[in-house]
Fold each of these.
Amino acid sequence: MGQNETEIPEATYEMLMSATYRALCEHGYDDLTMRDIAAEFDKSRPLIHYHYESKEDLLGAVFEWMVDRYEAVMLEEVDQDGSPREMLEAFIDVALEGPADPEFDHWAFFTALLEFRSRAHRNERIRRAVVESYTYTIDLIREILETGIEAGEFREVDVDATAHFLFLATDAIRIRYIINDAETALLQGRTALDELVLASLYSD
Amino acid sequence: MGQNETEIPEATYEMLMSATYRALCEHGYDDLTMRDIAAEFDKSRPLIHYHYESKEDLLGAVFEWMVDRYEAVMLEEVDQDGSPREMLEAFIDVALEGPADPEFDHWAFFTALLEFRSRAHRNERIRRAVVESYTYTIDLIREILETGIEAGEFREVDVDATAHFLFLATDAIRIRYIINDAETALLQGRTALDELVLASLYSD
């Protein structure tokens, strides 16, 4: 955390995070410079340096901001008054296709997330935010599974292992979409989830 | 491809790839310098520059070398005279725990792979090698599935979707191992694969 990071006013913080995120999506992690970020930011460049010592500090902060934003979007899509199956399928829909919110560019978000994640094992701040984002989504799936098992809609599976697996499987399908085969990745991913995973999870 | 890359003698190539790989595992993609690579390489630094114009060229080459090496190791472990189920389980074993070969450091390999993969959408040479490594493994799983369905050991699933899914799911479990929760990632991953995926794939 940068020296003066905690003192940043809320409105400046939002503006800076959003500018950094746009610059990151455009240039990619490797090529992003403080100059690129400043070009997206309406205020002065020294103001960035006052709050964030380095590009790494600022990127750590923007990643936490991204994760917070995604959690809110995800919760809004999934936490509805449906049955456990409907909620699980809503989770799969939003995980694979993104939320309905047109402001949220699902693939830009996950492409940036992929770049952060590959640095998690070498950057403690990023690692913590990655783990937090995992935990949040997995907890959400876990609750859906528990409700569904209690209601008799799902078989009695290992809830923790299944929640992790559903999260990881949808994540892996997204990674395939980003790297290759955009067209078929989502279609085949859904087919396999339906034929294999949901078929053995649903109790009838 | 570097200007003189194709002229590199085989022994020098092996030595340079192996030195670059060791340096990459130690320093990570972001921090790796040509100096770090030269420090692992017995021959002169100008020799590296003669064959590879930039660090990016050399890293592209080392990634292709890594992928070739992994394919050989994978094939040796899986292509045995077992039944389709035994071959599929051998694939899952080697994907999650690595090959028996003590020379091959499974987790160092996949940590490096993770760093390459996050650059695939911005680097065409890396993207091609990523896709090749996917394709190789998926073809191997596809053959096992086809044999198993023909032999009546597996249900009649969508072979292509299932092969991709099995590859992606094991890969996702490995990523979880690298980023977090080393202990439980493999255990829970196996539980979910057994309870959900294999349970609905096996025909009895």
Amino acid sequence: MYNGLTVESDKLKEECGVFGVYGKEGDGLARTTYYGLYALQHRGQESAGIAVARDGKIMHHKQMGLVSEVFDDVLLEELEGSIACGHVRYSTVGDSHVINAQPLVVKYRNGSLALAHNGNLVNAVHLRGQLEQEGVIFQTSVDSEVIANLVARKDKGDILEAVKETMNCIRGAYALIIMTSARLIGVRDPNGIRPLSLGIKDGRYMLSSESCAFDTVGAKLIRDIEPGEMVVIDGDGLQSFYSDGPRANRLCVFEFIYFGRPDSVMGGKNIYMSRRRAGANLFKEHPADADIVISVPDSGTAAAIGYSEASGIPFVEGLVKNRYVGRTFIQPKQRQREIGVALKLNVLEDMVKGKRVVMVDDSIIRGTTSRNLVRMLKNAGAVEVHFRVSSPPVQHPCYFGIDTPDRENLVGANFTVEEIRDKIEADSLGYLSLEGLIEAVGDCREYCHACFSGNYPI
Amino acid sequence: MYNGLTVESDKLKEECGVFGVYGKEGDGLARTTYYGLYALQHRGQESAGIAVARDGKIMHHKQMGLVSEVFDDVLLEELEGSIACGHVRYSTVGDSHVINAQPLVVKYRNGSLALAHNGNLVNAVHLRGQLEQEGVIFQTSVDSEVIANLVARKDKGDILEAVKETMNCIRGAYALIIMTSARLIGVRDPNGIRPLSLGIKDGRYMLSSESCAFDTVGAKLIRDIEPGEMVVIDGDGLQSFYSDGPRANRLCVFEFIYFGRPDSVMGGKNIYMSRRRAGANLFKEHPADADIVISVPDSGTAAAIGYSEASGIPFVEGLVKNRYVGRTFIQPKQRQREIGVALKLNVLEDMVKGKRVVMVDDSIIRGTTSRNLVRMLKNAGAVEVHFRVSSPPVQHPCYFGIDTPDRENLVGANFTVEEIRDKIEADSLGYLSLEGLIEAVGDCREYCHACFSGNYPI
Amino acid sequence: MYNGLTVESDKLKEECGVFGVYGKEGDGLARTTYYGLYALQHRGQESAGIAVARDGKIMHHKQMGLVSEVFDDVLLEELEGSIACGHVRYSTVGDSHVINAQPLVVKYRNGSLALAHNGNLVNAVHLRGQLEQEGVIFQTSVDSEVIANLVARKDKGDILEAVKETMNCIRGAYALIIMTSARLIGVRDPNGIRPLSLGIKDGRYMLSSESCAFDTVGAKLIRDIEPGEMVVIDGDGLQSFYSDGPRANRLCVFEFIYFGRPDSVMGGKNIYMSRRRAGANLFKEHPADADIVISVPDSGTAAAIGYSEASGIPFVEGLVKNRYVGRTFIQPKQRQREIGVALKLNVLEDMVKGKRVVMVDDSIIRGTTSRNLVRMLKNAGAVEVHFRVSSPPVQHPCYFGIDTPDRENLVGANFTVEEIRDKIEADSLGYLSLEGLIEAVGDCREYCHACFSGNYPI
Amino acid sequence: MYNGLTVESDKLKEECGVFGVYGKEGDGLARTTYYGLYALQHRGQESAGIAVARDGKIMHHKQMGLVSEVFDDVLLEELEGSIACGHVRYSTVGDSHVINAQPLVVKYRNGSLALAHNGNLVNAVHLRGQLEQEGVIFQTSVDSEVIANLVARKDKGDILEAVKETMNCIRGAYALIIMTSARLIGVRDPNGIRPLSLGIKDGRYMLSSESCAFDTVGAKLIRDIEPGEMVVIDGDGLQSFYSDGPRANRLCVFEFIYFGRPDSVMGGKNIYMSRRRAGANLFKEHPADADIVISVPDSGTAAAIGYSEASGIPFVEGLVKNRYVGRTFIQPKQRQREIGVALKLNVLEDMVKGKRVVMVDDSIIRGTTSRNLVRMLKNAGAVEVHFRVSSPPVQHPCYFGIDTPDRENLVGANFTVEEIRDKIEADSLGYLSLEGLIEAVGDCREYCHACFSGNYPI
């Protein structure tokens, strides 16, 4: 139904954010979940949903739209309960139906379940096929429905056992919140590809894709759920279980580059600090003889500041962002096509005129926005534009929950760095190396960096 | 979310209407279905949906609201296909979620299915339980989901066999349209409780709950689908199959009394004519010494005219209906409570003043509206009000798809005729006998009249 | 913005309904006005508005849509006041903006005014021109704005004097409610072309276009406001004033034929009774040798019953109306054009097959619906169709607030009765004469019947 | 109707933005205006409107909501014309009705006018009273209606003369766009309090509150409209006229501090650069012994960078903004009150822990947000927080179009700097002096700085 185009179209898209909290009735848990999802809104702007457990039943509301559009005061009052979980979703247009909004709420032999999932199963098609062979019907196109079917079939009275068995079946990336009428369960895949963390406020445990949601609701981050871990929160407190088989630490490195909110902490590392270090490393690898460092706001700013600090070249703001740019606007006619970027960003001419400019962005996907920005700078009088990217070229599709464009549209997969430099009309172009990136993000962890390296954890 | 009350609150509620058509792409089948549902709107005003099959896939749109609110031109254009089916639904508030809107569209091992169901399974809870025991999850509270699961599990490659086997499992009332990517299937339960008829226009077969939808789209009624019959419409034309076991003709007699549109034909009988005959029989059983016959519009008019013809007492219009009364309006405050009926109906004082009035209604459920109408007539100067009802007292709940109020609110279940007369403040009260009703509706058929007799077909 | 067509497109359109009530805060006057407008909804379905006076201020809410769509409980609570007035409006598409919705609320030197107007000034263009010459600006295209300007300019401290002087300036048809912070004023033009009546409930005076609104809110009709009368309702009760110059009784006769609700009383005459008498006169003037009399529901029914009574030919229902037909629906594609009428009306074949049918309608405007109905009857097996119209041919445009089509689309203005009969494919056609109509409506009053006679009162 | 609170509640509110363009039909001028308003959205988020002149007529559409919500493709297509103007509006809740949305479109003796106004007349009440004495009615509460009345009354055939005479009557702040069917007129008050600038693209002249809108649509800034200047754009090109009497250059200095977009140029000065210089001056006046400089994003960032450059203390990002914070969200319950700021901003703990922090904001209005931010920093481990404000204390209300809170809520009007420091719990607090601010903004111009100095230009 949208007749507009998104202004963020030259970035990779995260697919979901999840949040859950265990407490007691009267705690306003739906409201807490609302604020938690509000803080996770950057992980999905297409639909939002909240489910609550009360008196052995699960009630929910979900709809297309931003968290602030989907819920109002009356709805949150009605969603009073003793456990709550929620979900924000981004999806490709094809599946953009309310039927696919989450949490998915189902009834089965042992009661009701709500599921909220971030990630992507690589064997979903296979599992669907298997289930279908056994007569299962599917009403949605989301993996949650596959997982719900598996849990339901494996649950012979012990939901925890059923979830553990399900973890043995499903392969891929998943950060999963499962709510029964009595328990809040958090699960992370054995490679820990998608993030999930544990927080606490006034003795109430919470789960969230990112710790920034804990800060927003006044809770404290305890720790990340570990790869292959299942935490079970109920009246007895918190219990922890682990999946069979090998477990590794392959958190998606793009969470550090672009997806995660800079104020979140993942794997013990603050995202903002990682980005700043990436900027510093970027300078070491690709120095530039320039007068100023600017960023493509907002995602490139931390790295630009890091680059500036390492290089001693002053960081200045060279591009201004229209802070009212929404998800959609009316598409310019053909001859106004250039308005697309101009609606979002404008040059501060006085800052760049006559200057040799280093412009730092976090990534280049299609390259069209990059070229428009270089042109805008040159038109404003920049004498040189040295484009620096705080991550390696994206060359491979993601199978773990990130919406990567078709290979033909992935500029890094089709052209050399020099060719890309030429296409975006920059005077020089430098990408941070994978090593430089890993070093910036830190420590001995293995990350999933398949989109750069093609080295898939699964 | 509604803050109003419905003005039809003193009538039984039908639960659904279904429509389907087989043709080819470019025929505008979604549009035909839209008009068909428009004609069936009286069978359900809560939600509406249309599904179409195109190129092996099934697409659909469904939403809360009237047919004219749910669809617009753009949606109908997008729903181009070679087969289409649709559904209108009424439900109690508790289940009034879009998740329960129909058609239900599912994927399973042999492709996709859309199901549109009118009726109620009496063994749905049992079947759900059985399926749940086998690990099935349920996302809705509608019987269609039970049926879809059964069909999917029984379909080993022959959908027709699967539907037949399903008919052997499910018990209760069902008029069912099942659409695959290649076929349109119509099914009616072995007792034929809910109606379903077959029509044709320009060689295209259609299915509809009522024949009035055929008239609206310019098609011709061929015949009713028979009790226990499954018709299969595809590129080879129409085939017919029958359920195993006994079949009977127990069409819900309330379709003739209130639910069906007067211009529909069911069981070969025109509904309007039946109502008129019921009015004539009502006079024979309960004559009245009166000056005029009036009806409670619109549902009592045909019987009132029949009463008038049989009695020779002139039929006049004594009550005027506000034709803009919608589904909801703002609830009057306590001291304005009487406005409820007045918003809908007003007396023509000049017609009733000084008169002895026979007022004919099709049924009395709670009795509150009846009492208000008697009062209105008396206030307008009617000297006597003889209430006549063209059906017997409703004394038993319906288990086959009609929403009957709790027994305590069913005036006919709790009071004698004389007590009801007293409550509604009429000078006399007469209900048509079951025999008189059956005679009016016609021929040797057995109907389901369990709401009057307690004699349930199943 | 509407993408549909109205199903009532072959009827003349009333342009407005007004309602007002004087009481005290806490009486729920906005709510009373809401129900009053609900009862007047047939007079205008495009926009609705309510204004209330409280503490010397006037607040209001108005919007496009039906009364039940424009207001909700919260709005009515906020519109608490000691005087209230409201308006429902129909208009041609061109002026269908919320800016033209009424009541019009303005501030001027002596306070605030709300105006609700039904009718049309014939010298509005002239008065606008004059006012513009004096420097007045206009923000709307409604006559109310002209009237408000005149009242404001003439009000030197005595609003009543100002209204009286305004009545001396404006010419045409007007039933007007003016509300100040302290008074409710009702005004009717000296020819009394548009209706306005006075009612009372629990000592509170009310004004309404039609008495049916009084019945709905439990009030009693006192009398019509007289032609040229201004009634002033305030803390001192009710005062009455009269315009200078001649006054006549030229109530629009079409109120009796089609616009007015049958349960309303105008000029002391019940509308339904007038229609019935018109039907009887129609038989006297145009008898028919036929088996049954049917009506085009709902507007032709009273006359059809009158025709039946006078002729002894039994009245039966031959056409069934879809009671869910709304204001708009999706337009059929070219080859489905015939669906237009079929969506609204269907034939009861059993009633008309083999019969010689008299079909009675209240008027013929364009003739297209009439022809479709005759065809539907013939297709259903009627052997003869004798069309009878309970009013004369509409041959002249209305300048007093009724939306008549262009002369070229007015079938009565362009063809003889025989030609029209031929166009609509009826076996015979008879229109009621003007004399017969006047006799039916009653007494010695002069009506405005310019649309039939060309004899304009002004 | 909003049930949320705005997250920007601790900032002053601009009241409007205006845009206009002269061209020819087919140029897509409504679309250009749409993009222009999109760029001016920060000046008003309550309502938006566009009017176009075509064939001697003026058409318009306006509604409550953001530009992207008010318009869609269909509307912009319908608003094709040869001249266009538009408006975005912020207002206090009391007047937040669509009736007050602009442009105001009126008809008067010499045709039609559309007016879009930014500013506030100080003699509006007086002028209204005068006009009312002459019989004028008012339908809105906006000054545009006063201006439209004056222009209409003074226009004896020469609209330019009428506008000039109007300028002699009205006193206060106004940047005004007036569109007739043939001309686009831009007017700025003789003190030049509110900004208005002239741009050009492909020979088409444009008017805009800020030059950033020119950049967005690909146009070039020519110059500011001068104080007291009226520019008239029509088929003959551009003509310029000046008001009688003294003219001064008293542009609102708050445009440089907060209202204006950083990429706009006003009075020949880039706003971003001014803010940076203000930050540098702020250091000179209020140095701090600290480890890092952070800003309150986004409005404090430019000054923070200036402070950093001048001081040599490194600028880092210490606060992260949730970029999905919308205009409204559901209000936290009492005990969650602290969530308000946390929803919008979060601390980067790693950046501030153990640090002595200089936090720079552009202004302090109520002080509540400031205190919450200081607390957040301290909780995150900042050892000292030195609050610096890049403008003087706001001590006086604005009468020229800015919504200042009541004096009792204006922290700068009621407390000394030391008291404020204590209230916001900062270790030190320094406001930029008026001299320092003026020096930063630049040159010999006189600004309006009445909110700081009480020295009103009028």
